[in-house]
Structures are given as structure tokens and as C-alpha cells.
Amino acid sequence: MPRAATTSDAFNAVAEPRRRDILNFLALQERSVGEIVDAMDLEQPSVSKHLRVLKDVGLVQARREGRRMLYQTNAVAIRPLYEWSSTFERFWRHQLLQVKERAEGKKDPVKVN
After folding, report:
1. Is the pLDDT of residue 33 over 90?
2. Between 17-26 and 33-40, two packed helices, what is the crossing angle to 10 degrees?
3. Domain-wise residue ranges, the chain
4. Are the CB atoms for 23 and 14 separated by under 8 Å?
5. Nearest C-alpha neighbor of 36 from the set 45, 58, 59
6. Average pLDDT, the chain
7. Which CATH code, of 1.10.10.10, 2.40.128.20, 3.40.50.20, 2.40.330.10, is assigned to 10-105?
8. How many CB atoms are located within 10 Å of the residue 25 CB?
9. Is 72 helix (H, G, I), strand (E, B) or coil?
10. What is the tens place of the pLDDT at every residue in 43-97?
11. How far apart are the first and last CA of the chain?
């Protein structure tokens, strides 16, 4: 089955690590393209391309303030990504509990004289 275009699906869009980095950077605060360029140490055309993909799938929103474009995450659009990934939380919690139990079970009891 062919893969969906990155511009049509949020899951494919966030498959690119730099786009995830940009989303993380935008998570707490609205930022300009220049701020993203500086923080990510990427070229402006590359950042603009990634922002366009994220905007096309609805993961970020943009607004103009004078000559600057400001970007912020769209929490409503990110929710399906969160819900899908959280289905695996129970699995990982169980795995970590097993690791903890094994680690604690292999410890020798401390002998007190």
C-alpha cells in the first residue's frame, strides 16, 4: 500500500524528526520563523517548508503580525496523535513494572549482624 503524502496526514507529517522538533519548540509559545530558524539551527527555506507541511495538515496555525508570521501548535489537531500514542501507555507501564520487579527481585537481602 503506498504511503500517504506528508501533506495529507498528520502521522506522516510528524514522521520527520525536524517537524517534531519544531512542534516541540512551538508547544509552549507562539514563535516567528526567525526564532525557529535560530533555535533549530536550520536554514530559513527548510523551516518554511516544514512549517508549510505542518500547517497543511493542521498541526500548526499561523497569524500575521506586521511583517512577521507567528506560528503556534493547534492542540485540537494534535489530539489524535496523542490519543493514538497513549493506547501504548499501558503496555509501557506494564513493561517498566516488570523491569522494576525483576531488578528488585534479584537483589540479595541485606544481612544485619
Report:
1. yes
2. 120
3. 10-105
4. yes
5. 45
6. 86
7. 1.10.10.10
8. 16
9. strand
10. 999 999 999 999 999 999 999 999 999 999 998 998 988 888 888 887 788 787 8
11. 68
Nearest residue to 23 (alpha-carbon basis) of 46, 54, 44: 54
Question: Which residue do the cell numbers 540479595 mark?
Answer: 108
Give pLDDT, residue 15: 92
Give me the pLDDT at residue 92, please.
Answer: 80
For the entire predicted model, the pTM comes to 0.72
CB-CB contact of 58 with 77 (8 Å): yes
CB 13 within 8 A of CB 19: yes
Query: Cell 489537531 appears where?
Result: 77
Nearest-CA neighbor of 50 among 31, 65, 66? 31
Instruction: At 87, list the grid cell.
Output: 493506547
